[in-house]
Each structure stands twice: as structure tokens, then as C-alpha cells.
Amino acid sequence: MQDNKKNNKPKVVILGAGFAGIRCARNLLKHARGETKITLVDQNMYHTFFPSLYELATFHVSGTKEGKRNEFHIAREMSAIHLKNIFDEKHVDLVKGIIENVDFSTQEVFLRGGRILPYDYLVIALGSETFYYGIKNLEMFSYGLKTIDDAMNIRDTIHELFFRKDPQEDIHIVVGGGGFTGTEFAGELMGYARRLARMAKRNESKTHITIVEASSFLLPGAMERVQVLAKERLKKLHVRILFNTRIEDVEKDCVIVSGGKKIPHDILVWTAGIKASSTLSHLTGVDFKEKSCLAVNTKLQLPYENVFAAGDNSYCIDPATGTALPLTAPAAISHGEYAARNILHLARGEDLEDFTFSFPGFSVPIGGKWAIAQYKGFVICGFLGWFGKELVMLQYFLSILPFPKALFHWLRAMVFYMRND
Ligand SMILES: Cc1cc2nc3c(=O)[nH]c(=O)nc-3n(C[C@H](O)[C@H](O)[C@H](O)COP(=O)(O)OP(=O)(O)OC[C@H]3O[C@@H](n4cnc5c(N)ncnc54)[C@H](O)[C@@H]3O)c2cc1C
Asked: What is the pLDDT of residues 235-265, one digit of tens each?
């Protein structure tokens, strides 16, 4: 079944409604409404707002049964932003479907079930997924933190654990990886675990949270001062960190690390590896780089003039440093903007622009209203850092939503999750 070609405006098909795909569609609408026909395809009818997944995986509900149901609904809604909340379907064709392949010669995208979408311009923005480095049994015995369902599963499993396990027995939660996701999750988890221990009438000292990190520092890519501050903060929260320790095998109730030592776990959350979407492996006539990302030129094009790759699934060199850009929301947003600009240049017969990017800095929340913000060599931590992190969240919401909706989502999420701190 092929979508008909009656409309003769150039068709832009965007694969993936993440930060890159949404930003690209929004910029095309902003700068060329009516000039192109935009189709946005995703397996979900919502955008997964990753920066709040660690909150979703550790949020606490209270009150009546009915109240709890509402709170679950609100929490989910805050990390799963419906695409109809972002786009007017009059302007963007929203397609729910699993992308299976692309034929670059006939300019067609194939969806599971047989639907075919023809395109004049294509943006591939399929993001990334959890990667296990071939570590034995890791996938089988661990939870990833890459989808809404992952976050809800982690939350519910930990909740159940506190009420199921004999109060005399210890609870062991192991986090694989001390990168940004592992660090912020472990920090927030301690608050959640304390509440659960109180509710389940367990001794708080019987809960053990351990980060297993292969290198000798946390937060790769951050300034050394930030890495040290993060380590101290986690120590204060009683999170144990095992540096220079590599997970080599996993059993149902323990992880086996370098040297053969066994570390018990009731739940293991793996945050240490990502690679580009496995859908890309079906593509032919393209080059792959580190983490199975698509190689792009300085204009973000694949070896086909009318095909661009944006966000986590593209391997892009930061022109300022000559190294690969980290897989972050700001980089994805910027890719989306450039892809939109270059599509319009192509359509109008103009010269294309080279991608440039200036890394704005970051913030990493570590438990409660406490975060470290690093911005152009300056570091702030504590409550001020947390406030900086909230401003960054607002920026992320603004990158995908119109201003009033972004403000609403931001305030709602801030107030909702503040109760957990
Ligand atoms: C837990 C977590 C927390 C994070 N926190 C931060 C943070 O605080 N700050 C920051 O800068 N970065 C953060 N990141 C990284 C950041 O979220 C990513 O770099 C960013 O989301 C990449 O955007 P993207 O558009 O490339 O991909 P994504 O946002 O991953 O979007 C890809 C889209 O493609 C869809 N898709 C994939 N395959 C298919 C298919 N075959 N068919 C149909 N649809 C498909 C997916 O459903 C998804 O909607 C975090 C990541 C995680 C996992």
C-alpha cells in the first residue's frame, strides 16, 4: 500500500519524534509553512521526554486509591508528551508506525505492516537504545532506563521489593554505570528507597545502593571539579561507588565483576551503554561509525543529497573540538534545526550551511533539590544548581512545545516532582 502522490508540494518525511525530529518539524513549520508537506513517523504517538525519566522511575505516590491512579496518570503524561499536544494535524501528518527500512533509490520508507511513505526529503532521527557490550546475561537480568515502560517497571519492581522481602533481609540495588543517567538515578533513588523503607517498616540501613563504574571517575566529559562534587554528594547520600570495576557476568541475584568478586543485587539497572537505533542496521548504502551511528557530512547529509541524519543516531564531529559530539538533547535539537534549514536551502536552490555547535553546558541533579550545573567553565552546585537545572528543563520543553504549553508542562512537572524531594 503506497500513500498517494496527489499533493505536489515537496514531501519531507521525518523518522522519529525525539528532540531532533520534533525540532526539525517545528522549524520547517516556522520558516516555511505551506512550502513543504511534513510527515512525522514514530512508533509511539508521544515524545519520550528523557530528562525526567529518572524522576518517573523513582516517584512516590500517596493518598487514596483514586488519588494514586491520578498521580500515576499525571507522572506518565509528564514524560510522555502526546504529539497532538505539539502539532496541529492540519500542518503535520502524524503517522504511528514501526519503521523497518528505507530504499534510498526509490525514495521510500517502509513501515511494518506494508505501508510505504514516499519522500522528497528525508530526516533520519531514530535516536539510540540500550547497549550491553556483549556482557553475559546482562540483558536478561537487568533493567534499562530508555523508555517510559522501563522507568515504570523499575519503579514498580523496587516498590514491590520493599514489601515482599523479609524486613530482616538487606535490599541491594545495583546501578551499572556512573555516567549522567546512572548518577542522577542513584541520587534520586536514595530518597525513594528511604520513603519505601519507612512505609514498609524496614530499617533504612538495610538498603544498599551501589554504582559499579568501569573507570576511575563519574560523569565522563564533565570538569574534574564536577566529578569530585558528584562523588562527594553521592557519598553523603550513602550511595556506594565501586570505581575501576567492570561488570563481566550477571546472575539472577548477583553481578560478577572484574577479579571474580560477586556483588549481590535484588535489582540491577543498567545505564552504562547506548548505541544508535538497531533499525539503522537494515539500511544499505550508508556508512556507520562509533556506536553504530550514521556517518554524515558537515551538512548532516548521508551519501544522498536529500537525506539527513540528526540526533543520537548520527555521528557528528564538533567543529570546535574535532571530536564526536556527545549524545545529548542540545546536540539533537541543534541537528534538527540545521536539517530543517538545509532542506529549505535545497528546496529553494540555495547553498547549504555547515553544521556548527556550541555546547551550552549541562546540569546534573543528584537527589532532592540539589544539582551541579557546569556552564562555560563555571560550576554551581546545591539549590542554585537545582534551579539552574530547572531552567535547562524549561529550555528543553521550549524546544519541543509552543511557549504556553512548555511553561505549563514545566511548572506542572516541577511542582509534582518537588513533593518527592
Ligand atoms: C534516562 C535519560 C536521561 C537523559 N537526560 C538527559 C539530560 O538531562 N540532558 C541531555 O542533554 N540529554 C539527556 N539524555 C540524552 C537525550 O535524551 C538524547 O540525547 C536525546 O533524546 C536524543 O534525541 P533524538 O531525537 O536523537 O532521539 P530520541 O529522543 O531517542 O528519539 C528517537 C525517536 O525515534 C523513535 N524510533 C526509534 N526507532 C523507531 C522505529 N524503528 N520506528 C518508529 N520509531 C522509532 C523513538 O520512539 C523515539 O521517539 C538522557 C537520556 C536518557 C536515556
From this structure: 999 999 999 999 999 999 999 999 999 999 9
Pair (288, 197) in one structural domain = no
Q: Determine the residue of 22, 42, 43, 50 to mutate for testing ligand 1's pocket, defined as the one with the most ligand atoms within 8 A of the Cβ atom.
A: 50
For residue 16, report the distance from its CA to the centre of ligand 1, in Å.
9
Q: Strand, helix or coil at 212?
A: strand
Residues 240 and 381 in one domain: yes
pTM of the model: 0.94
Confidence of residue 319 (pLDDT cuts 50, 70, 90): confident
Phi, psi (deg, nearest 5) at residue 417: -80, -20
How far the first Cα of the chain sits from its last, in Å, is 51
In whole angstroms, what is the distance from residue 194 CA to residue 201 CA?
A: 10
**Ligand 1 atom, smallest distance to 23 CA:** 25
Q: Give the structural domain span for 374.
A: 138-272+363-388
CATH number at residue 176: 3.50.50.100
**67 CA distance to ligand 1 middle (Å):** 30
Residue 90 lies in a domain: no
Report which of 44, 43, 45, 40 is spatially closest to residue 20, judged by C-alpha positions: 40
For the record, the C-alpha cell of 176 comes out as 551499572
Per-chain mean pLDDT for the chain: 94
Number of domains in the chain: 2
Pocket of ligand 1 (CB under 6 A): 16-21, 42-44, 48, 50-51, 53-54, 98-99, 125-128, 145-146, 181, 277, 279, 311-312, 327-330, 332
Q: What is the pLDDT of residue 116?
A: 98
Residue 89 lies in a domain: no
